[in-house]
Structure prediction request, 358 residues.
Amino acid sequence: MIALNEYNLGRKVKVMQTIDEPAKKIPIAEEADICVLGGSCTGVFAAVRAARMGAKVVIVERQNCFGGVATLGLVNIWHSLYDAEYKRQVIAGLTLEVVERLQKRFAVQRIANSSSVGFKLNTEELKIELDQLLLESKVKPYLHSFYVAPLVDGDTVKAVIIENKSGRQAIKAKMFIDATGDGDLCRHLGLAHYRAEAIQPPTICAKLYHDAELNFDWQGAIAQHGAEFGLPEDWGWRSSVPGLPNIFMHAETHVFDVDCADAEQLTYSEMEGRRQIRALMDLAREYGQADPLALVSLPAAIGIRETWHIKTLHQLTDRQLLGGVNFKMPSLLAATALTFIMRMAKGSRLSIWTARKR
Prediction:
């Protein structure tokens, strides 16, 4: 029996043999009102808000902490809570609450009137704060737990299968929230989905130790000498970390031409991204007089920008997104003001700032 799997954005087809898995009874680990799949900040906020409104909530995360690319990927900036003119606050809720909680830990730095960053975070503290939010709200957390498949009765999802150190288990719920980042549950249910023709490339971030006064043009050096170290033409950015002098988060490179929804390409991306960090440091030592320079930490997971898209009941058009349309319908999220950056082909980007309109 032969199965066909999509590979490399559909340009190739990888042929795999299949094997039958024997049927077995699966224990029910939890029964809840709501089950959230994916423990990014988005997933955590959905779980906490539902629990505060009285729902019994379970959240499932495959990694060892909550927070998604902020904590696992080391991306330590959040955008402004205000519109493009910095006159009207358009974001509040749990985003603001977490910022205020981190302020008490001296783990956040506010940046006023910036189109690219509103806050710099110590994301190690953010991990603990998200833990506390979930526990205070009595959300049942499952870390190191992989969502596997839905169990469907007719047109209703009755439960999902998860895998963890306790084995294969089921979680029953009245409602499920897909916060997997790849739309895993939605795709497994057969909802319409698609991938863009050109997928935005992922980035491996890193925390580096170096002199705060280091006067080194990282991107200029990559453009001039990157090929010597196997680094493609690229662009990136970096940020200081609150409370940690001489520790900087660097996001200088991308892994191009990969599909992180494919297991083999995701594996390659992780390893290539780490190689790029070492190459970046070698370049800095060779051409930047970067002494001292040390690798402090690498992310638990590469920062993935794009894989699958789900065709929802309403999708924002480019005009609505860039025009900051204010929706009246309670079921729709309004577009708020922030910098939209599309990372496209090698060495190119599209960065657009949008103002919110009433």
